[in-house]
Amino acid sequence: MDAPAGCTVTATGGELNMTSPALLEVRNLTKAFQCRLAVDNAGFTIAPGEFFSLLGPSGCGKTTLLRLIGGFTVADTGNIHIDGEDVTGRPPEKRPVNTVFQSYAIFPHLNVAENIAYGLRSEGIAAGEREKRVTEALHLISLSGYGRRRPHELSGGERQRVALARALVKRPKLLLLDEPLGALDKHLRESMQTELRQIQREVGIAFLFVTHDQEEALAMSDRIAVMQHGRILQVDYPKKLYERPNCLAVASFIGNMNFFAGHIIGREHDDLIVEIGPMGRARVPVSTGEHFPPGSQVVAAIRPEKFMISRDSPPGEPSLDARVLSAIFLGDRTQIKVAISEAAPVITITAPTTAQIPSAAEHIRIWCRTSDLLLLRNEAASPWTRDGWLPRKRTKPPCKQVTLSRE
Amino acid sequence: MRGGPHPVIRARTAQMRGTAAYAILYLLFLYAPVLLLPLFSFNDSVFVAFPLSGLTAKWYSAMAADDDMRIALFNSLKVGVAASIASTLLGLTIAQVLTRGIPGRRLITGFSNLPLFIPDIVLGISLLILMSRLAIPLSLATVILGHLALCLPFAAGVLLSRFEGFDLGLEEASRDLGENAWMTFFRVTLPLVAPGIAASLILTFVVSFDDFLIAFFLCGTDTTLPVYIWGELRFPDKLPNVLALGSTILVVSSILIVSAEWMRRRGAPSQLRGAN
Amino acid sequence: MTPAVLRAAPGYLLLTPAMTVLVLTMAAPLGLLLAYSLWRQDGLFIDTRLTLAEYAALVSDPGFAVVFLRSLAIAAVASIAAILLAYPVAWFIAFRARAKFLWLLLVTIPFWTSYLLRVFAWKVILGYNGLINSGLMALHLVSAPVTFLLYNPVAVVLTLIHGYAPFAVLPIYVALEKIDPALLEAAADLGDSPARRFLRVTLPLSMSGVIAAFVLMFVPATGDYVTPSLVGGANGLMVANLIQAQFGRADNWPLGAAMAITTIAAVSLLSVFAAAGARCAAGRIR
User: Fold this and answer.
1) Nearest by CB: C189 against A92, A103, A107
2) Which of C98, C179, C183, C190 to mutate to test the interface with A (most CBs of A within 10 A)?
3) Residues A308, A395: contact at Cβ < 8 Å?
4) C183 to chain A: which residues are within 8 Å by CB?
5) What is the pLDDT of residues A330-372, one digit of tens each?
């Protein structure tokens, strides 16, 4: 389902314990294009040598944010510090960062070696040293001997590697990568992900990696910042992001999720008593959610793989009777769609293929543990849908509401 | 907070102002001589000199009353219309065939662009030789023939670019729905390339109308307007008449070219990247 | 006959009218021109025995050599100057201007308005009683009209630059417009200042447009007739005037044909060399 608009939680979580100063520090960065706010008060830090991803759907502002850090676009407010220096006012050629562009931007009139060596001229590096570095770089990207080839003779993957080498050969403090694997096919992309991570560890340079592919981000990153509508929703380690998303938008973006509308009835010791739609009452440990006052509307979220199919559900744990709609074989697991009632949205369950898979139209019983339930604030401004399942999508705020704070 | 605009923006704005100023100067250089003509066509003096002597429209009325000029004008119009229609039709065939992919495509394109790379004088005398050899008397007809060669590259160029932006899938859809090649052309291709055809007609008309040298060699006893003007340039007291005529041509040509360009771009996929 | 050619047969058929016209108006006349250049004028008749006599006459005629070389020089100087003047304008329209269509239109409109009258306008500007002189006199900067403005090669060069301006601007613009902006961003990212970016990326990638502009202007400018006639005077005579004389009063068609063929050959050769040279020079830019 589409992520509902807006997430009022400010980005928290996943702050590193910094013994050394942060390599990149972005504070209060805002950029608006005419009527549209592309980047809204973004702020985060990156540690030296870290693989950091900016993750979000198309149009969420991650590329704009990258371009602000690279110096290709000028921010309206905010500042950027790299290694303690304020680089906010500087053009790209004066920043200690380099970029791997989405289109690679390989110079068509130069061969591979000349492309890689391009940025070394402005540093005044002698020809001999240049050649040495180019050879090293070609070896690093596994394209030794390709020096004299011309760009049009290279495949997409090869060009991508040349773009990487060209940037790395300048030994920047931070490397920016704008969806570099987007144009590659699935297998190539996966092998490049591994290779990229290896290279990053080998050279020890911090990478700021922009992608819309969450699997890619989860697989490669030390930490991830999830963005939507120009705002950073959550900055965290991949595992924490998956297990503890801090708001509805992040929860629905990362992985698959089932959502149920509910409201808080009360609190007993360390448990919140929640009324969750057809599942009835459940005692949810407070650690799985914020502190919600009684009566507040919440959304209970649970991952498909946390549902279990069994007639004997332990007492106290929420359970449901459901009718199987479909069972789709996905190779390593089976995805089962079930329905509770006619009007209600479908629930998705994944089961390992070794389990006994029910067939369509069969009636089954599913249950889950309350500790696997995640309670999230319901951020919809409009009232519930008729059957009370899920909040209606929030409409986009009209343009006029955008204001930029200028001191 | 921060003092003034960002250095990168400041540099870019300065760059923009600098090159914009140069571009405007360049345009002034282009237009100044051209705008002289209307200016002095209203000047009450036979000499084109400062200071201006006073405003008058008498040169325009004198021009309108000139019979020779009127004949030459009509001849030019006849030749222009004929040449534009013929070259546009031929250009259509070239565009239609070449965009479908054909062996020897580059050769054909090169051949049809050849007139652009031959100086007018060479083209003029070669045609003169040909007409003389074939014992064809020189007249407006031979001028039209010469203009065909002149106009064809322009027609082909405009129509090729228009056809290239054309989605072949539309034609395939039409065939799939039962129409044969001719009907497909009339019902699908033609309406979509119509702006290109209009642009080609106007462009080739202007090329033909303005041509002097080819007409000079091939017109025989007939005159076209540029040939007439050339004759008038020898007489200094007829100068303001020529200015009045020139100004009129200037205005009409400008209008025609603007409408041709507008039509050429109408509906065509935008080839202009946004400036940033 | 390959299958591809057979399949294309209907296309070839449709092309026949256009190709016929082109053959009739270009191939045949040029072929005939070549033939005439190999014949001789014998009184009122053409002696059609093949001979190189006309070419020999040209080679041994110093007057022709002067005018011929002057034409090439004038055309070359005008083309190069036009390109240098036009490049910043093309760059501006491609990279900085907002209403590109409008700018391109403004650059093109003068070109479509009677070449004859535009050259004549320059005659009027530069003439003895013309605009510059009357202006200088009115401002009391000179006591008598200046005579060095008109009827010399410089006037021809200036008028040619003005007359062929769109031929210089448009091809350069088209080449510049094709350059991927990401390439310039990459160059900046890799440390190049704006000036270095231009020299190392923009210039080499726009070379094809510069070469096209040169050829598109050099070839017709060499054979221009109107400009030298109106503003060239005796010192600014160009090869087209000589050719026209052979087809007019002098009535020596074979000689005129030989002149024409020599001109085309020289112009084509020079264009090829210039293009190759420019491409080679651009290829050396790292």
Assistant:
1) A92
2) C190
3) no
4) 105, 107
5) 888 888 888 887 767 778 888 887 777 888 888 888 888 888 8
Q: Does C26 touch chain B (CB under 8 A)?
A: yes
Radius of gyration of chain A (CA): 25
Contact C90, C169 (CB under 8 A): yes
Helices then strands, each counted (H, E), chain C: 16, 2
pLDDT tens, A287-345? 655 678 888 888 888 898 888 888 777 777 888 888 888 888 888 888 888 888 776 77
Which residues of C fall within a CB distance of 8 Å from B50? 131, 134-135, 138
Residue B2 C-alpha, separation from nearest chain C C-alpha, in angstroms:
24
DSSP C45: E
At C143-166, the pLDDT tens digits run 777 777 888 899 999 999 999 998
d(C-alpha A89, C-alpha A99), whole Å? 18
Token digits of residue C173: 């613009």
CB A119 within 8 A of CB A166: yes
Cβ separation A74–B1 shorter than 8 A: no
Instruction: Count Cα neighbours of B132 within 13 Å in the Cβ-side half-sphere.
Output: 16
**Is ipTM strictly over 0.95?**
no
Cβ neighbourhood burial of A285 (10 Å; 0-12, 13-18, 19+): middle
Q: Which helix (H) or strand (E) element contains residue B140? A: helix B140-164
Burial track C178-187 (b if 16+ CB lie within 10 A, e otherwise)? ebbebbbbbb
Q: Which residues does chain B have within 8 Å of residue A406's beta carbon, measured at their own beta carbons?
A: 1
* pTM of this structure: 0.80
- Tell whether B8 lies on the interface with A, counting CB pairs under 8 A: yes
Distance CA B112, CA B99 (A): 14
Contacts of C267 in chain B (CB under 8 A): 119
